[in-house]
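User: I'm preparing a small set of examples for a lab meeting where we compare how different chains pack in three dimensions. I only have the primary sequence for this one, and I'd like the structure in token form so I can line it up with the others. Please keep the answer compact; I'll paste it straight into my notes.
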Amino acid sequence: MTNKYSDDQIIHLEFDDGVEFDCGIMGIFDVEGKDYIALEALDGSEDVYLYGYKATEDDFELEDIDEETFEKVAAEFESLSDEPL
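Assistant: Understood. Below is the structure token output for the 85-residue chain.
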């Protein structure tokens, strides 16, 4: 299987329950003045994860999205999904 992401576009996620896997960075997009990131699971599933995105001096941080805001972010992601992010 060929990976469409370069090494610098892949991040390792680890959930609180100990589940770990790699994700490809699909893109970063704006919703109401805040940045969000879409991550594609590289475990063979078609899962996409959405997080708040905050650039730091050296890297970036992922932030959980509250339920109310998630609906807006997911809708924006879906509207952009046919276009490069």
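A couple of notes for your slides: Helices lie at 67-80. Residues 7-80 form one domain.

User: Perfect, thanks.
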